[in-house]
Design a protein that fits this description.
The chain has 169 residues and is mainly alpha-helical. It has 6 helices and 2 strands. It has a domain of 116 residues: Winged helix-like DNA-binding domain superfamily/Winged helix DNA-binding domain (Arc Repressor Mutant, subunit A), CATH 1.10.10.10. α1 crosses α3 and α1 crosses α6.
């Protein structure tokens, strides 16, 4: 089993947004740069995250994306399931008559135990905790903003002036 690229990218986006001050909104182009995800693919991921209610979007010149719920209340499991649907290791884990063998199959209990472990681990990892780890880890590839950002990504005091981006951003 492997998490898809779409889920990986959604997690990157959510960690980045969770690391921003509450109420921040970020343009898609900035999210693309900060998460190293191509704009076209990112657009699809963002649409799914908006549909799931995890983020909001605002169109137009002052638009952007932001968290729709507090980062502490969003788990890694919720982000993955927003993209993939419910996590299922095997068809026999589903409720109801999904497999005629599950009542006597010796592997069913192993699948169920592994499923529960995955759900517990992913469910215990909040976006707020992951964003905190990213901030604390100086080698992190996530480019979190240490102070509030503006739509352009440039603080108000430097708007209208050409600003050279540093490599750390």
């Amino acid at each position: 089993m492997q998490i898809t690229r779409a889920s990986d990218y959604a997690v990157r986006v959510m960690i980045h947004l969770a690391g921003l001050p509450a109420g921040s909104k970020v343009r898609q182009s900035e999210l693309s740069q900060a998460t190293d995800v191509s704009g076209h693919f990112l657009s699809k991921v963002l649409q799914q995250l908006v549909r799931s209610g995890l983020i909001w979007s605002q169109r137009g010149s002052g638009g952007g994306f932001g968290l729709a719920v507090p980062a502490a209340s969003v788990s890694l499991l919720e982000v993955v399931e927003a993209i993939e649907g419910p996590v299922r290791l095997n068809q026999c884990i589903e409720e109801g008559p999904s497999c005629e063998r599950k009542s006597w199959c010796p592997a069913h209990h192993v699948w169920a135990e592994a499923q529960a472990a995955i759900v517990n681990v992913l469910g215990a990892a909040s976006m707020a905790n992951l964003a905190s780890r990213a901030k604390a880890d100086s080698t992190s590839s996530y480019r979190l903003h240490p102070r509030p950002i503006w739509i352009s990504g440039v603080p108000r005091s430097t708007r209208g002036k050409r600003v050279r981006r540093t490599q750390g951003r």
